[in-house]
Each structure stands twice: as C-alpha cells, then as structure tokens.
Design brief:
The complex is a heterodimer of chains A (456) and B (104). Chain A is an alpha+beta fold and 456 residues long. Helix content of chain A is 44%, strand content 9%. Chain A has 17 helices and 12 strands. In chain A, the strands form 4 sheets. Chain A has a 5-stranded mixed beta sheet with strand order 1-2-8-5-3. In chain A, strands 4-12-9 form a 3-stranded antiparallel beta sheet. In chain A, helix 7 runs antiparallel to helix 8 (188-204), helix 9 (212-223) packs across helix 10 (235-257) and helix 15 (326-337) crosses helix 17 (407-424). The two termini of chain A are 39 Å apart. The chains are: A alpha+beta (456), B alpha+beta (104).
Chain lengths: 456, 104
Amino acid sequence: MTISTPVPSRGLTEEQAAARQKIYDMPLDELNPGDPGSFETQEMWWKFERLREQDPVHFTSEEYSDHGNYWSLTKWEDIVAADTDHDTFSATAGIALPDQRAMARAVASANFNSRAVTADATAVEDAPRGPAPAITSLLSMDPPDHDIHRGAVADGVSPSTLRELEPIIRERAGAILDGLPIGEQFDWVDLVSKELTAMTLATLFDYPQEKRRQLTWWSDVVTMIPGPDQPVKSFEEKDEIMAEFRDTLVSLFQDRVSKEPKGDFISLLAHSPHAGEFTLGELIGDGIVLLVGGNDTTRNTITGSVYALNKWPEQFDKLRENPALIPSMVSETVRWQTPLTHMMRVATKDVELGGKTIHEGDRVVLWFVSGNRDDAKVENPNEYIIDRRNPRQHLSFGFGIHRCLGNRLAELQLRIIWEEMLKRFPEITVVGEPVFSYSNFVKGYESMQVIIPRRN
Amino acid sequence: MVDVTFGFHDGTERTVEAEVGWKLMEVAVNESIPGIYGDCGGEAQCATCHVHVRPDWRAATGERTPAEEAMLKAAYDVKDCSRLACQIIVSEELNGLSVEVVDN
C-alpha cells in the first residue's frame, strides 16, 4: 500500500489514518523505524511521531529488524547530544544502518589495508580482486584519523572554489532548463535533478562530463538495497558494479598522483601530505563518500523543493512574489526533505540518554528525519514554511566534526537552479505523486512527473 | 540582554540584542546574520563562525582557545583579531561588542 504523501498536519485520508492507527496499535517494542519499506510507503512518519512521544530513545531488537539490534534517537536534543559527543558515540561502526545480508557479505579487510600511495608518491597500487569490506572513509573515522582526511579534502569545496563554480553551475542550470519540454510531461528527476547534480560531481572529481551519469549510477548503487524490483537485482550484481567503480576510482588516483596537484577531490587526496599513510581502502572509501555525499542528497532536495512547493501552493506564490526568499526556501527544503534520514554511531562506553542505558558496543541511530520534525525544537515542523524564522535550524547536515562538508555547495546549487527557474517558468506543476525511494537511509524520489505549461 | 553589532564587508552593520550566557555564534545564527553558520553547533570544529573582533573589544573578549587556533589554521582571512564566535560567550561586560563577519 502506498501512502501518497508525507502528511502535513492538515488532515489524513482514510487510508493514511488507518496506516497511522496500525502503527499506534502495535506493541511498542515491535516498532522498527529502520525498515526500508516504511520509507517507501511514507509510514515512517507515524513511527517517529509515536516514538518521539512515547519512547524517544528506543531499542529495536534483532527479533523485529533486518538490521540487528539498534537504538533509535528520535528527538532533536538527543540527536545533537550524540552527534556532538564523538568520544562516546564513535563513527567507526559504519555510516548507516546496514541490512544484515550486506553485513554478512562483508569480508575481512586485510587485502585493502596496504598503503595506497608508493613511498615516492608517484603511484597508487591497483585494487585487489574480490568483494570489498565495508567502506572506510572520513565519515566513519574518529579523530585523529578523521581530522587528517577531512583536512585533506576540505579545500575541494572552499569558499573560493565555490565562487569559481558559481558561474559554471549557473550556465549549466540555464542550459538544462532551456532544454526542457514545454507543455509536455517529463520526469523532473531524470532531466533536471540528476543532470545538474551529475555535472557538478564530475567537475568536483575532474571526471569527463560526457561520462557523468556513470558517477551518478555508481553512487546510487553504493546505497542501493538489491532486489527484484530494484535496478540492481542481487548482491552479486552489486559487488560487480562496485568493483568497476573501485577500479575507476583507483585509476583516477593513479592518474592524479602522477601529475601536478590540482583542486579536485582526487588530486587533493592523492597529494595530501599524509597520503603516504592512507590505505587503499581509505582512499577508495573517501572517494566513494565524497561522491555519494553530493549525489542523491542534492538531487533529492532539488526534486523535493518542486514537490513541496506544489503541495503548499501558497508557499510557491510567496516565492514567486519575492525571489529574495530563495535562500530561506532552500534551507527549509533541506530540513523538510532531510535527504539522508540518519547517521549511525556506536557507543564506546555505557551511557545514559533519555532515561535509558545504552551499552558499550551498542549501535545508535541518529534519526535526523525525526529530529527535523520534533515540535520541541521546530514550530509546526510538518508544515513547509519557506520564510520561517530560523530556516537554517535543522539536522539534515548533522552537527559536530562530521557536519556535511558539501553543505554550502548543495545550497549553492539549489539557489542557482531556483534563480534560473524563476526567471524562466511561471509554473512547474507536479503530475500525480512521485515514486519514493526504497531505503532507510536515502530519502528520495526515484521519479517525479511534471509539466511546465509555458515560459515567461 | 546586551547589544552586539555585526559588521559586514560592504560597510553595513546590524545591531542585535543578545542574551547573556549565549555563544556569540548562537546569537548570530538566531538572528540569521549572513556569513555566520555555526555548522558544527558551536564546538570549534568548523570555523564557519569566524569573526574579526574590533580593536576596542580585543581586551574584553580575551584570547583564543587552543581549539580555535587549530581551526583558524585552515581558515581564510585570518588576522590577529580573528576569533570563532562560538568561543565568545555573551556577558554584561560585552555590552556594545562589535565584530566584523569574515567573508566565509
């Protein structure tokens, strides 16, 4: 059953009310917020609503989950407390709540632990064969390693880099928008959201523009749960595609290390003063995370902005009347969309939170998607209000040392595309409902049909 | 409540009321002062609240913490008067504080 839309506080359809009731009637300990299916059907809203009220720090046993035992933090306050205490809540257990089947396939990482860059810093070794272990990257490291890796790549999105990128992004946005069909239905995700994001990613990695969709595809596969209804049918197939991705990344590193340092992420990593200490697994992992970080997140927020403005047409009117509200609308969309639903941590010691005792070694999920709808912190959180008082007040980028590195770039892309859209199109109308992604991590849109009736 | 003033690159300024005990960064974010983001939530982990303290307020705001030094190493347009606004706590003594927002 598909619930058609994340429900504002305006009133539910009969179907939605029934789904909500079912969640409230369940025994509390059976509530499994990590179930990817509930994100596809949009039922997760009811789970989080109930948990925030009745069991904000909630334990899900492996008996009720495909993800093993895990804790869920559902309120803003607890999420921020955990996110800013990286000593107690370590990132090293992995970025996101993994499917058990994926966990079972992860092999010992020995063959990815060799030093990647040769001593004379002129070459990077080839990737070994076989399935890879769980990704090791800056996002799943604690200090001091984390700080070294993050320091190596931060310049890739420095203020001056962004200033240089702005006109390039604007030109591309204009070209994409000018190429859109008028008066004819099309998939916004494919023609706009994916396109602009892919172009930016290719630039950040200095990857050939004409092959940019490869980057998008590989990125998507990283977070995809294989299945008969999915673009990737099996874990075997996923492994093969990931191997191709890894080999490409390694060849990029090999290319950059042999040349003069440049400003793209790969070159920054390859030429980092610490590159001699990085393992191949870490180099690959950093590359993957930086790519994935800017892939579906920005894409889904672009789509989300069009969707939300259609669901709240008075907000769209407000925006058209006052384009100075674009930056504020962008922040509100990032909050409302929450493109990554959570990040995961592991407790390094026993800790009390929300009246519960989390034990050392327990995995703890920080549900940004729930915290962003916590009315203890955000007023009317389920309403999309583009000029709310503190639109930047949201959890979508995280907090603390792992705070999203690309957040300013995401906001830049969103601002530019909207500036260009408002110049060109008086209306962009969503047709029907989008297809929501099957994932407990990526909160997104597989496709969304729209019509642009006419140009300005 | 005390008054604090944020100056900008273009010469304009904005004076806002600030609660004693708040971090200066929090005041700025709450008032949507452009250029101050507080990405890391005030933990001296991101340098997106970088300000230049005006000369007559240097003494009252005191010296940088070691954490600030570390973050400012990788920041832009760092001067002697550079501070992270998340490490400046609003107090009665800072009534009238004036800082310039660094173009982040």
